[in-house]
Here is the input.
Amino acid sequence: MEKRVTFSSTTIGLLFAFPMLLLVFVFFYWPGGQALFWAFTLEQPWGGGNKWVGFQNFAHLLKDPIYWNSITRSLVFGAGSTAIAMGVALVLAVLTDREMKGHSAYRSIFVWPYAIAAPALGLAFRFILAPEAGLLSILNRVWPDIWNPALDGNDAMIAIIVAFSWKYIGYNFIFFLSALQGIPRSLIEAAAMDGSGPLRRVFDIQLPLLTPTLFFLLVINITESFQDSFGIVDIMTQGGPARATELMVYKIYFDGFKGLDYSGAAAQSIILMVLVILLTILQFRFIERRIHYK
Amino acid sequence: MGSIAIRNVRKAYGKNAVVHGVDLEIASGEFIVVLGPSGCGKSTLLRMIAGLEEISSGEIAIDGRVVNKLEPRERGCAMVFQNYALYPHMSVGENIGYALKVAGVPKAERLRRVAETAKIVGLEAFLDRKPAALSGGQRQRVAMGRAIVREPGVFLFDEPLSNLDAKLRVAMRAEIRRLHRRLGATSVFVTHDQIEAMTLADRLIVMNGGRVEQVGTPAEVYNRPATRFVAGFVGSPAMNLMEGVVDAHDVFIYDQTRRVALPPSLAPAGARVALGVRAEAARLVPAGTEGSLDAVVDFVEELGAGRVVHTDLDGLSFAVAIAETTTLKAGDAVGIRIAPQDVHLYSAESGLRIDGKAAAPAMAAN
Here is the structure.
């Protein structure tokens, strides 16, 4: 006789899933639904419910040069930070892969920046990059006013790109390193026997075999640059100077909570969400077709 | 072109020594097989020749040039790896041609040489395929082609056949032999498979525990194993070894009743020795026959062409190979006769062969 108390597998499965489902519902589907609702309606000036306006909110946005500015800024930010974060991480990983003593220590140390909340990170970099007293203040001594993120839009963009890249270098490094370690040693040795030097091996053997990882990180980095940048922008530049760092995600917050244009902000967040979803779909479609090592 | 001199080469990882001083002269064009159990240092030795492993002390020279400090690509060796190590993102043609591409050979000549090589290894029809779309035997050929195309002075093989199934292994073995005859490059082939070793080698090097136990032609190694280890390792089934003492009348005494007559004055009286007899050399006779060892049949192994009768001598197992069919079954009492000229004798202390003459000549190579 079966003595243990048993549940039907469906019931117990649902029970275990329930807390997670609840969280996903409360923090994703519900606000997502609300945003959809706001995006297609307008609030009556003096209260009294929302009026259905169809795509009017979107049409407004797409005609607005300020919105297009934020899209451009987001693309510059995404491209810059992804290039730096992935490029530096790849170089570090290739160098580390050649001399692998204590790699478990590298692994945990390099992933720490990723665990730091964006606002804390932003604050730290605000000090580091401060024009009066930060690391770059030396430049200002030599050439007055050459570096000032508070006044110069390009400086501000550089500042947030640097801060964001710093956070993702460690994250990318971990992925690159484990992918490099996954390449059979004998392949590298075979290439060495074939007369290929260390640098040539990187380009001929290691990089091609890293393509799945490269692509995965590319999508993750771009996606995160759209989403995870809010805290850094808010602490370091507040979108300024003169909207030079007003990324899409920051503009959503600013229009919605500072400008109280819920419908406009909701429409922007729908656009951003669609962008991120498209990127994610692209990643899954593409990665499944990539080569594997065997 | 392609002679290799290995002089007192040692390898240690920290304090852990894996190769203890190997000396070896390999003539140009020779096919050398290094045979030994796993962990005996044979692969390490090969990788030191290739330049994939640093040499802790001693010297390796290829064509008279000391290569200790040279990069693999400067040594003029090509290597075939156990797992083939094909570049998965390149086609068969690109895999074979990679070394030429790195060397900067012009494209037209490269393609011509790749096509030529593909013909030698029988892969003309597969040049555009990726390694993943090939069978095990074909991958093996690509790996061979990749080594051949460079026309190297020295071929290094690191257990290249161990991932193939038995039938393919025999076929590839023959092909490697044929290829060697055709190209004439010096080859060093590492394996733990003694059949491979016996069939391929011009000269065999048996290694154990980081030392060379014997160097010689396959026949020499089989007929006159230089040490007790080689005696037990080379040959299938393994040579029967029994420990005992030699008495004053040139008789080997295993226990109360079991004795074996030895050739005259082979070993001094009172010497503790290990006596070895090949399963093929021992004879089965009816139980109780004068001068035979009493044994009980344990089981009979049917090999098709012959059979091996495994017997038990009060706890010591002893194999006898016979050609004719037999009705013997487990538990039957039999006698085993050993002729004096078939006896191999080894010192129980040093494990060295006792010849009654000077020290074993094969060991002089060490």
